[in-house]
Design a protein that fits this description.
PspA_VIPP1; Phage shock protein A; mainly alpha; Helix Hairpins; coiled coil
Length: about 270
């Protein structure tokens, strides 16, 4: 294959591709239907002309037949009158019109066949045009639907769904982290309250232990003080009076312990009042 042949094929292929891409189905269908309608107009004109020619030939044929009949009567009339020469001329004229009528009959038959074929072609073309109109509307609707689907696919394809999904995942993770922080803060707040109460309980134990140590230093039994009940108020008063008598009897011998005993008594009174 020569260089020019290859170049011609490449150019033709590119032109065909450009033409194929430039073809709009709706416009092509409209143009095709317009061309079919133009052919229909031409065919109708051709049928009309053929029918007109047929009518002229038919008239000529009928006129020739009438002349044949006419000269046949003239020949008979001349022969009846005894004019044989005139009768012979009439027969010659009749023969001429008869030959013309036969020729016209052949032409008329051909024209009649042509007109019938043209009429059938006209009916077929009209049927095709009617079918083409229906198919054109259907193909236009399908073409528009395909274009709409193509545009939709282009929009969907242009969307960055992966990044959008990743953004949702990031936001979900961020919300989960925020929820975890809030839960941790709530747990820390509860733990802080519990630690405060634990410190209060620990401070009470230390105070009790301090009081017991003070009792040991004062020579009393190292029992931990208990909170008095409301029904034992008289017993607590007796104990207070006994302790007062003990303090007065031991005042001369344990003068340094009076301050501790006074503090313990004050602590007991505070506990009684709680």
């Amino acid at each position: 294959m020569g260089l020019f042949d290859r170049l011609k094929r490449v150019v033709s292929a590119n032109l065909n591709d450009l033409v194929a891409k430039a073809e709009d189905p709706e416009k092509i269908l409209e143009q095709a239907l317009l061309e079919m309608q133009e052919d229909l107009v031409k065919l109708r004109q051709g049928v009309a002309q053929a029918i007109a020619a047929q009518k002229r030939t038919e008239k000529q044929y009928n006129d020739a037949n009438n002349e044949v009949i006419k000269w046949q009567r003239n020949a008979q009339l001349a022969l009846q009158k005894g004019d044989e020469n005139l009768a012979r001329q009439a027969l010659q004229r009749k023969k001429s019109f008869d030959e013309n009528a036969n020729a016209l009959k052949g032409t008329l038959d051909q024209q009649s066949a042509t007109v019938e074929n043209l009429k059938r072609s006209l009916i077929q073309l009209e049927s095709k045009i009617s079918e083409a109109k229906t198919k054109k509307e259907m193909l236009k609707a399908r073409s528009r639907a395909a274009k709409a689907q193509e545009q939709l696919e282009g929009i969907v394809g242009g969307m960055n769904t992966s990044s959008a999904a990743a953004a949702f995942e990031r936001m979900e993770e961020k919300v989960m982290i925020q929820e975890a922080r809030a839960q941790s803060a709530a747990e820390l707040t509860g733990a802080d309250l519990e630690s405060q109460f634990a410190q209060l309980e620990a401070g009470s134990d230390i105070d009790d232990e301090l009081a017991a140590m003070k009792l040991q230093l004062s020579g009393a039994s190292p029992k931990q003080p208990q909170l008095p009940e409301q029904g034992n108020t008289s017993q607590n008063n007796n104990q207070s009076s006994n302790q007062s008598s003990n303090q007065s009897s031991n005042q001369s011998s344990n003068q340094p312990n009076e301050v501790v005993d006074a503090e313990l008594e004050a602590l007991r009174k505070q506990l009684d009042q709680m």
